[in-house]
Design goal:
Layout lengths: L2 H18 L7 H4 L22 E7 L2 E2 L3 E3 L5 E2 L1 H13 L1 E7 L5 H6 L5 E2 L7 H4 L3 E16 L8 H6 L5 E4 L3 H10 L4 E4 L2 H9 L5 E5 H10 L4 E17 L6 H14 L1 H10 L2
Parallel strand pairs: 1-5, 1-6, 8-9, 8-10
Antiparallel strand pairs: 2-3, 3-4, 7-10, 7-11
């Protein structure tokens, strides 16, 4: 079995646990501020409220496959778009997707500039001090994405031990935190979005990208034959939707997420976008 297959099978096992309601301990030493929120599958599914056609402004980055990206026609596609529409189908709301840059998005959410942030956000106790979160819809890990065919390292520790190796990642993400923990600030190059971080890898400016497993798979699909998952780093980050503090949409969205977890439609969308 190849290293990539082992990592992906481990990831699929984690998703299966999430779908069944399983929840492991979060390794706080990896990110420093990760805590636990409730898995959507652990909530009791009940009747979701009717929002009466209310417009819900949903922030996405449009640069973070497979969660959100623009297709060749300029249309937004990905997990976020499918899930936003599915949730509004249940809640009788109208999704209005708004593109937003990652840098500064949490102050914007805290100020109520958007109703909900999708974008594959990891639950952090630090973030929970300024914004509110939904239940966790999936558990993921972080990996080192490398150039295909090079095999210059096989584990995260081996990568870290080579002081010439550098990592790219996206600024103000948990990936940046883990990269700093692994190799230090001086060996980490942080970019505005992961597209730029991946291009730095492809062009040879860095030796790996610290990135979430599902997003690594998305960029591998976007760049056939150029990239590979080389090493697993973490395996237990909970992703959740983000709301302005005290939002009256949190309970409705949790109810809809719990319904989708119970009827299998959440897993169907996860399988469509997260599985290779």
């Amino acid at each position: 079995m190849t290293k990539k297959m082992l990592i992906l099978l481990t990831f699929l096992f984690i998703i299966a646990l999430t779908a069944c309601g399983g929840q492991g301990d979060v390794a706080q030493e990896d990110t420093g501020t990760v805590d636990q929120t409730v898995n959507c599958s652990d909530l009791e599914a009940g009747d979701a409220p009717d929002l009466g056609g209310q417009e819900v402004y949903m922030a996405v980055e449009n640069a973070y496959p497979p969660f959100n990206i623009l297709d060749d026609s300029g249309n937004g596609v990905g997990w976020d778009y499918d899930m936003g529409r599915a949730l509004c189908d249940i809640l009788n709301c109208t999704p209005v997707f708004s593109e937003a840059a990652w840098d500064g998005i949490f102050p914007a959410m805290a100020a109520g500039e958007f109703d909900v942030l999708f974008d594959g956000v990891t639950y952090l106790t630090e973030r929970d001090e300024t914004v509110d979160f939904s239940c966790a819809y999936v558990v993921i890990g972080q990996v080192l994405l490398a150039r295909a065919g090079e095999d210059r390292f096989s584990t995260a520790d081996e990568f870290a031990s080579n002081e010439d190796f550098t990592i790219s990642t996206q600024v103000t993400t948990t990936n940046e935190i883990v990269a700093h923990d692994l190799v230090g600030v001086d060996r980490t190059k942080s970019f505005e979005d992961f597209g730029l971080a991946v291009q730095a890898l492809i062009s040879g400016d860095v030796d790996a990208v610290m990135i979430d497993t599902v997003t690594a798979i998305g960029f591998i699909d976007e760049n056939p034959g150029a990239l590979t998952i080389q090493a697993s780093v973490t395996s237990d980050e909970q992703l959740a939707l983000v709301f302005p503090p005290g939002s009256d949409l949190i309970d409705p969205f949790n109810a809809a997420l719990a319904q989708m977890a119970a009827d299998g439609s959440l897993q169907t969308i996860n399988d469509k976008w997260f599985n290779p």
